[in-house]
Amino acid sequence: MKSIPILYSFLKLLQDLIGEKSNLLDPEAITASQELDDALNVYNKLISQVEK
């Protein structure tokens, strides 16, 4: 499944961004985290539909 490497890449980018920021409450870190959360929710919803 191609979505798995994409999610891992996005997670790595988020980890890199958080590593660059001294504060997890930095607006960019919060936005990236929310976007990753949204992407994971969509992924999980799709997976649950395929498994039915």
UniProtKB/TrEMBL annotation:
One of its GO terms (biological process) is regulation of sporulation. One of its GO terms (molecular function) is protein dimerization activity. Gene3D superfamilies: Helix-loop-helix DNA-binding domain. Coiled coil: none annotated. It comes from the Bacteria. Pfam families: SpoOE-like. InterPro entries: HLH_DNA-bd_sf, Spo0E-like, Spo0E-like_sf. This is Sporulation protein Spo0E. It comes from Clostridium beijerinckii.
